[in-house]
Design a protein that fits this description.
39% of the residues lie in helices and 20% in strands. With 276 residues, it is of the alpha/beta class. It starts with 8 loop residues before the first helix and ends with a helix.
């Protein structure tokens, strides 16, 4: 399979750097919407066919292969069937957690999350059918995708969610028909920087699909502009859905048509670095 080229000069330089020295490259990918299709219920998410096999191939051919997700690291390992992928790093909760070779490192939850867990049901008591809460231990996520008018419901709830989060010392982070209430000071950008700096990478590739991935894109841009590390940003935009953030595609060096296309492209990348 031919490896599709980026549309920008910076992306082309990064891809060339990965192919020239894959052992010093970091390839990091989001889970939901990138490796796995978006679903109404988070617990129903599963990787696109071939995704786990592609991670197996990449983990053995690049310096560091990672999944960077807003989910709990252990949940992604379980849902994705990733426990047996050798040398895979899973950074959960935007980098707050790390899972490597069966060992999970995670801090105690922020104290505001316990109070949020107690008070959120009252705030959502009158919400339309389909609105539900995902408990990620370190944060809570309000989902409206199953509701009859998900975007309108989310906008109606947002001010109250923001007020409650602020009261408890938390922050609200928008996503694709979700609002997450989480501890401040963590994002995927910091996770990507840590992966690159800890490994001393000479190139980085990041793939994502949502607003939370913009911080990772910004980190890649900073690394290639000021850190001397070539970087490639890839947006997963599923044409079957209309809620993808426009900013992500506009900022990406390469746009792929959702998880199936992502897996194909990663497979081509694994094949290309395997031939070097």
């Amino acid at each position: 399979m031919q490896l599709r080229e980026p549309a920008t000069a910076a992306g082309e330089r990064a891809l060339a750097a990965v192919l020239a020295d894959p052992a010093r490259a970091v390839v990091a990918v989001d889970f939901d919407g990138t490796l796995a299709p978006i679903v109404e219920r988070p617990e129903d998410a599963r990787p696109t066919p071939g995704a786990v096999e592609v991670l197996h191939a990449l983990a053995g051919r690049v310096g560091r292969c990672a999944v960077v997700t807003g989910r709990a690291a252990a949940d992604v390992v379980r849902l994705g069937g990733l426990a047996d992928v050798p040398a895979l790093h899973v950074l959960g909760h935007y980098g707050l957690e790390e899972w490597v070779a069966g060992t999970l490192t995670t801090p105690p939850p922020h104290p505001g999350v316990a109070e949020l867990r107690r008070r959120l049901p009252d705030l959502l008591a009158g919400a339309p059918r389909g609105v539900h809460v995902e408990d990620k231990t370190h944060s809570l996520v309000v989902h409206t995708r199953p509701a009859a008018e998900p975007a309108a419901v989310l906008e109606e709830l947002r001010p109250r969610l923001e007020a409650l989060a602020a009261e408890l010392g938390l922050e609200t982070v928008p996503g694709r028909l979700v609002v997450e209430l989480r501890p401040p000071g963590v994002d995927k950008g910091e996770a990507v920087r840590r992966l690159v700096e800890d490994y001393g990478a000479r190139a980085v590739v990041y793939l994502g699909d949502d607003l939370g991935d913009l911080a990772a894109f910004a980190a890649v841009e900073e690394l290639r502009t000021h850190g001397g590390v070539p970087g490639l940003t890839v947006a997963s935009v599923d044409p079957a859905l209309d809620d993808h953030p426009r900013e992500l595609a506009e900022q990406a060096d390469l746009v792929l048509d959702g998880p199936v296309d992502v897996v194909r492209w990663l497979g081509a990348l694994a094949g290309a670095v395997g031939e070097v």
